[in-house]
Amino acid sequence: MAMIVDPAAPHVTPPSRITSPDGWLAAIVDEPWAGVVLSVDYTAGTPLADADEVWQVRIVRQDPGAPEPVPVRSGDAAWAVEGVGTAYDHEAPLGAAVVYTATALYQDGSEGPSSQLAVTVPAPAPGAVRDLWIKSLDDPSLSARVQLTSPYGQESAGRQDATVVAGSPYRVIAYDVHQAATRPVTVDVLREDIERVRKLLRSGILLAQVRAAYQTPDAYFVPGDIAETPTGKLGSTGGYAVAFTIEPIARPATAGQPMRLPGWSWDHVVDQFATWDAVAASYPSWAALSTNGVT
Q1: Which domain holds residue 136?
Q2: The model's pTM
Q3: Are 92 and 35 in contact (CB under 8 A)?
Q4: By CB distance 3.0 to 4.6 Å, which of 123, 162, 209, 237 could disulfide with 232?
Q5: What are the pLDDT digits (tens) for 124-159?
Q6: Cβ(260)–Cβ(248) under 8 Å?
Q7: In Å, what is the CA distance from 289 to each residue of 16, 68, 100, 104, 151?
């Protein structure tokens, strides 16, 4: 079938690829999903002499102001196939430059060289209608950018035990650190998005992110009670007001977590290809296959 091209149509700008000085580590910002596709190829540039002996690749991310780097969820560690490893970071802070470091790991437990690069995942622009990202750790394709319709305030519960002291007008107080701040949230969800958001809010551990101007940190959480209110007449509504509370929990463990890319998994490969030969003919490298051609 012939392809019809409109010469007046704007050209699609491919995502820019950032590469480390040694040419081994590369990153592509996945703006539609606010993530970063990472690939390590020890056969690129000046190839690593023992590239085929690299067993795994450990990838960490240094966030601004953080005391130490944190492991990338699918890069702790990522398997290397013929000197090539890939990972997807769906948790990088928005609007801030971060530094990724990839280190080659060998089967005997020793480490090889490290590569570094810096990228920034854009945050929603000031005044943007959809200013809250809710991300699924297990299925990034469920993640959604939604509109906040309530003040993004917070409340931090105290932890105190008070005891009355005989003969003293003052009580003695034993105290601990405050509980992580909770944030009641109401978001506006369009009718065409409500089923995905319902599934997202019930999918397990989530990550809430807003731009830095809100001055509230990213938060991992599991929604408890969820309330929905149609924003119009039932049956003809334009959307729903969805309310829930973000109660932060510690970042879930990253070790041994598999590669999770929006809209791409081994299930998709099985559905699209009948044989491994067909897969090999469609993708020139492991990096291309594991990221569906992004790298």
Answers
A1: 132-246
A2: 0.83
A3: yes
A4: 237
A5: 888 778 889 999 999 999 999 998 887 767 777 777
A6: no
A7: 19, 32, 22, 21, 43
